[in-house]
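for the writeup, i need someone to sanity check this before i put it in the appendix. the sequnce is what the collaborator sent (i think, or maybe the updated version? ugh). structure was predicted straight from it, no edits. if anything looks off just tell me and ill rerun, i have time this weekend
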Amino acid sequence: ALMRGLEFRYDTTLDGFEAEILTDEKLLDLIISSLIRNAIAITDNGYISFGYMKKNEYIEFYVADTGKGFLYIDIESEYKRLKPGSSLQGVNVNACISDCNALVKALGGRMWIKSDPWEGSLCQFTIPYIKDL
């Protein structure tokens, strides 16, 4: 993000111990890094923001950007594509979102997106907050 002149913001509301949960660390890392890379790819100026907070029995994560936004996106199917121009800078946005959605579901969570064309996007997902078995 910094190499592209974008500001990178983050907000983590849990301290180290509270943020330690039982989950598949590799899948969670893949989801977060994919969403951040996707946000960087579709953002020409402004910022990328990442954060998480505990909400009841879940941790809710978000990745926000001031990028191009989407006219339409279907997070349930990699076969449905965005409107023309959605493959930005070599990144197929819909495939990334669809893949992340499948991984979030595998971790027991859900994912949703709010987006305004040319105003930016907010991708949020939850996973269960499990401290121990």
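The beta strands are 7-12, 47-55, 58-65, 87-88, 91-92, 111-116, 120-128. The helical segments are 16-19, 25-41, 93-106.
thx in advance!!
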